[in-house]
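>> received
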Amino acid sequence: MASTADDTQTQRNSSLALERLRIIVDQLEREARDQLPTERELAEEIGVGRRAVRRALDVLEAEGRIWRRQGAGTFIAAARGRAESRIRHLPEMSNMFEVMEVRLRIEPALARLAALRATAADIARMREISEKVATAPDMDSRELWDSSLHRAVALAAGNTLFLALFDVVDRVRQDENWRHVREALRTPSSQRLYHSQHEELVDALERRDPVAAERTMRKHLLSLQERLMLQTVEGNADAG
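>> returned
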């Protein structure tokens, strides 16, 4: 008999916890907050045991309202959507100069790691892609293969988080609204320079020279940044 009473109380507590947690999640979503308090804090706030809170969280997770990561906590699922939405809108919020600033921080470090970790197959693939960049017949092909080459370096670096950061920045860089800016940076002389720098980079990777790889990638990106600044100045002068 006591067991039945205990079960009823547990069920009542779990139902109460679920009801209150729905309210808490709704409130946090309105406040654009991403993470729930700890199970202990929720249990104290609601006035039930942690077991009841855990069961209620299981239900919310099954419904797709929350997600949990061991050691990190419990998060509102809608926050993932907000993060993806922010990424989609980054081109509108950012500019090419910001992209170059971030690339200059990330890609030289990736090149350094790639010099230590790239396989022979990685190097062969990079050489193949470098030639495709140089011989591409139009802008679309050049952009696609150039992005592929830089991503091959990022992939060879062997760091999942770095690669994810690279992909976010590259997605912003490839935005259609900046198409004319990217194309204006590619004159015949600049294309020859970029190809030479690509080859120099792959050579450094093949030699397993992390210092040279990092330096060459930085030099390459600085060349792009310099062309971007020049194009912007010339564009402003024409507009004036």
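>> The radius of gyration is 26 Å.
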